[in-house]
UniProtKB/TrEMBL annotation:
Family: Belongs to the ABC transporter superfamily. UvrA family.
Ligase listed as a keyword: no
Main location: cytoplasm
Protein name, as recorded: UvrABC system protein A
UniProt-listed SUPFAM superfamilies: P-loop containing nucleoside triphosphate hydrolases
Gene Ontology molecular function terms on file: ATP binding; ATP hydrolysis activity; DNA binding; nuclease activity; zinc ion binding
Cellular compartment(s): Cytoplasm
InterPro entries: ABC_transporter-like_ATP-bd (IPR003439), ABC_transporter-like_CS (IPR017871), P-loop_NTPase (IPR027417), UvrA (IPR004602), UvrA_inter (IPR041102)
Keyword Nucleotide-binding among UniProt keywords: yes
GO cellular component assignments: cytoplasm; excinuclease repair complex
Gene Ontology biological process: nucleotide-excision repair
PANTHER family attached to this UniProt entry: UVRABC SYSTEM PROTEIN A
Length: 875
């Protein structure tokens, strides 16, 4: 939101009076409320307020109004500090690296847990199953309940008794000489002097080391760093008449002796190795036909993070090329998939253990709703003698799966890599884990958990938040979703604007009190005084021109054919996991790139038609615009080049001979060399996330003293980088080239961000809007295809209205916009909607409805239509 200079000061004067008043707190009741006095963190204007405990509290307001500064940088940050203060002397040494929030006092603070929209891990070994710990329970279940099946014969393997082993030995051909061995070392490094000394004292005369027999008196010196197999020779024999009872007794004694020495594992092999087979017999697991055997099954056998269980070829990654990991390892045609385990990550032994005919890797690839049904059925099919073991394990698995499904994640699989999850999915996984923990008396701080959710799934999320509250916790949610606001217990409305125009407490109270408040922008939208209008006329687009995907089959898409009319704003929607991203990102976007590279569309669709009608495709997803603090809003949009050029033509610069390069913090010369132009130093915290502290030499200004001496309107370039876009608009009002670029950034709802704000601090939605701003500065051709993935992420009603004006401007120029979106205020303004579903996962992947928004609202089978219909009844 951008204000004129006079309007800005009018607003500041009005709300300054509010912040100057001291709230009549008296003696706060710390049992029932959290009291904040004098919060000034970031743009907060010395606000004081009381937040009720054990309630669902929503903090809302325009983007950049101070919501996160209050929730995360004040409440949660102070809670984290208090926690560290309670730890050991060693831990407390890090307190100086954790800046105290700028707040006079906070009383009644509970232990705080932050659940933000950040990727869980970029580690390729991290999956949904490992993060939620559900996979750990499955490892225990398969170890205790699973049955082993021989990979050679398919027969079920059961532990063998000594008598059963004797029967198998007696069945060997009589013409061969045999030796009975007890393995004491299998695949270990060392010289094993103590083992050989012990065997000698016990009277054993021969051993087999690797493939050679030795007298124990003449043993060679083994190489310490070489892997060896060592077996004791227990008995040499030729099988006599099958009914020789005396031989059977002797053989039984030898077998029992070998089992004791060989840890329940023995080997019978022919000395001359002509036609007789070698028997590998185990008191634990051994196939009676093939001889395939396993040691005792334990949970680590099913861990792809352990050398004991991981596939030896790919080391448990499922792929051979780590850089291609983020591609789907389920694609068996992908040459990077491990040829040994075929993407299952585990060794052959682990995949031989099955429950109801499925091994653990298969179970991990099922959608969570399918997995839940399987677990429910499993409870009644497990043998009675094993139910004592399985019941508590299955109960815990079901509970955790139910939590994940309750927050709209039923389409995920346990094998899904954590690095492929969106910020919203990551946050909801953390939320489900917290509910499963059963903690009470905790302050949970969440950052827009509704992101990425269809309105139907959002209802489930709200029920989950209520459940977390009902456990006896205080839940504070930074949120813009209307339903979440209306179903909360208490609302805190921040504003009135972004950046330095925000930071004021506009109103607080019940949702109905906020709705009635005359100064609340949120209230104006809740009561319908302000609203996003529905266009009276829809665009006709480019007649008879369309993009057409024929027979799409990516992920859960059911061989569908879809047309995208060109020259229109098109929304692709549907419940979570229905196939929206598979259709737009993995088929259309990827397919067009493949066609441009002259590559085949194998595995995606049969063909894509109509690409000759577009001149370029611009994909604006929520991936970061950079990985380091040097990459920021100004550098990405090209704004910083204009600013550096302006500083280079100032009189002081000309006098000193400074060029535009002097004002770059990416190269030596003008930057601070202590922090290399970052303005911050990274401190490794070991047991906590890394902490960034302000560089002591440049005080966060990024530049050396000589560069900072060059000023414009009494501001140096370091000061300029710390300005919000809204502030910079006024500062550079007279410089047309810079002012024009700033207007575009402000227009996408980013007026509150600092122009030098580092890329790592931007959310996915903010990063996407920075990309949109960059594209809006370019000249439009009218034939561009824009792909946007949930551009309203993190936006208030008013910001959505502003963003839609820009998007409609792009479409009015003849361009085509395809938007993956759930926001009903966006969907109702589009020209065309493609509704994918009807459900998520395997029950999705079909086209439920296509057409204008009003027509979708009349479709009886569309969940989206059911939520859209009321908008058109009102109008």
């Amino acid at each position: 939101m951008f204000f004129s200079f006079k309007a800005e000061h009018k607003i500041l004067r009005k709300f300054q009076k509010m912040s100057d008043k001291t709230m009549p707190i008296g003696i706060p009741d710390t049992r029932t409320s959290i009291t904040i006095c004098g919060a000034c963190q970031h743009n907060l204007k010395n606000i004081s307020l009381t937040i009720p405990k054990d309630r669902l509290v929503v903090i809302t307001g325009p983007s950049g109004s101070g919501k996160s500064s209050l929730a995360f940088d004040t409440l949660y940050a102070e809670g984290q500090r208090k926690y560290v203060e309670s730890l050991s002397v060693y831990a407390r040494q890090f307190l100086d690296m954790m800046p105290k929030p700028e707040v006079d006092s906070i009383s009644g603070l509970c232990p705080a847990i932050s659940i933000e929209q950040k990727s869980i891990s970029h580690n390729p070994r991290s999956t949904v199953g490992t993060v939620t710990e559900i996979y750990d329970y499955f490892r225990l279940l398969f170890a205790r309940v699973g049955k082993v099946y021989s990979p050679e014969t398919g027969l079920c393997i059961e532990p063998q008794s000594a008598g059963q082993m004797v029967q198998r030995i007696m069945a060997l051909p009589e013409s061969e000489k045999y030796v009975l061995l007890a393995p004491v070392v299998r695949g270990e490094k060392g010289e094993f002097k103590s083992i050989f000394s012990g065997l000698k004292k016990q009277g054993y005369g021969k051993v087999k080391i690797d493939d050679t027999f030795y007298d124990i008196e003449e043993l060679p010196k083994l190489k310490k760093n070489t892997m060896h197999d060592v077996s004791i020779v227990i008995h040499r024999f030729r099988i006599p008449n099958k009914e020789d009872l005396e031989f059977k007794d002797t053989l039984m004694q030898s077998v029992e002796q070998a089992l004791r020495l060989g840890d329940q594992y023995i080997i019978v092999e022919p000395l001359e190795k002509k036609t007789a087979p070698t028997l590998h017999l185990s008191g634990k697991m051994s196939c009676p036909v093939s001889g395939f055997s396993l040691p005792e099954i334990e949970p680590r056998l099913f861990s792809f993070n352990s050398p004991y269980g991981a596939c030896r070829v790919c080391d448990g990654l499922g792929v051979l090329n780590i850089f291609c990991y983020e591609n789907s390892i389920e694609d068996q045609n992908d040459p990077d998939v491990c040829y040994q385990c075929h993407g299952d990550r585990l060794g052959k032994a682990a995949l031989c253990v099955k429950i109801q005919g499925a091994h653990i890797a298969q179970v991990g690839k099922w959608p969570l709703d399918q997995l839940f049904s399987w677990v429910q059925h499993l409870e009644f099919t497990i043998e009675k003698d094993k139910r004592v073991i399985s019941t508590p394990i299955l109960r815990e698995i079901k509970s955790r799966l139910q939590f994940l499904m309750d927050v709209g994640l039923s389409y995920l699989t346990l094998s899904r890599a954590s690095s492929t999850l969106s910020g919203g999915e990551t946050q909801r996984i953390r939320l489900a884990s917290q509910i499963g923990s059963g903690l009470t008396g905790v302050l949970y701080v969440l950052d827009e958990p509704s992101i990425g959710l269809h309105q139907r799934d959002n209802d489930r999320l709200i029920r989950t938040l209520h459940r977390l509250r009902d456990l006896g916790n205080s839940v504070i949610v930074v949120e813009h979703d209307e339903d979440t606001i209306r179903q909360s217990d208490h609302v805190i409305d921040m504003g009135p604007g972004a950046g330095y125009l925000g930071g004021y407490l506009i109103a607080q109270g019940t949702p109905s009190e906020i709705e009635a408040h005359p100064d609340s922008l949120t209230g104006a939208y809740l009561r319908g005084e302000k609203k996003i209008p529905i266009p009276e006329i829809l665009r006709s687009g480019h007649v008879d021109k369309e993009l057409k995907i024929v027979d799409a089959v990516v992920n859960n898409l059911k061989n569908i054919t879809v047309s995208f009319p060109l020259g229109k704003m098109i929304g692709v929607t549907g419940v979570s996991g229905s196939g929206k991203s598979s259709l737009v990102m993995d088929t259309l976007c990827k397919g067009i790139r493949y066609l441009n590279q002259k590559r085949e569309l194998k595995g995606m669709c049969r063909e894509i038609l109509g690409t000759q009608f577009i001149d370029k495709m611009i994909e604006m997803d929520q991936s970061p615009i950079g990985r380091t603090p040097r990459s920021n809003v100004a550098t990405y949009t090209g704004l910083f080049t204009l600013i550096r050029d302006w500083f280079a033509v100032l009189p002081d610069s000309k006098t000193r001979g400074y060029t535009a390069g002097r004002f770059s913090f990416n190269v030596p010369g003008g930057r601070c060399e202590h922090c290399k132009g970052d303005g911050v130093l990274c401190i490794e915290m070991h047991f906590l996330p890394n902490v960034y502290t302000t560089c002591p030499q440049c005080a966060g200004q990024r530049y050396n003293q000589q560069t900072l001496e060059v000023r414009y309107k009494d501001k140096n370039i370091g000061d300029v980088l710390k300005m919000s876009v809204t502030e910079a608009l006024i500062f550079f009002e007279e410089i047309a080239s810079i002012h024009k670029r700033l207007l575009v950034i402000d227009g996408v709802g980013l007026g509150y961000v600092q122009i030098g704000q580092g890329a790592p601090t931007l959310s996915g939605g903010e990063a996407q809007r920075v990309k949109l701003a960059k594209e809006l500065t370019k000249r439009s051709t009218g034939k561009t295809l824009y792909i946007l993935d949930e551009p309203t992420t993190g936006l208030h009603f008013n910001d959505v209205c502003q963003l839609l004006e820009l998007l409609h401007r792009l479409a009015d120029q003849g361009n085509t916009l395809i938007i993956i979106e759930h926001n009903l205020d966006v969907l109702k303004t589009l020209d065309w909607i493609i509704d994918v579903g009807p459900e998520g996962g395997k029950e999705g992947g079909q086209i439920v409805a296509e057409g204008p928004p009003e027509a979708i609202g009349q479709c009886p089978n569309s969940y989206t239509g059911a939520y859209l219909a009321p908008y058109f009844k009102k109008n």
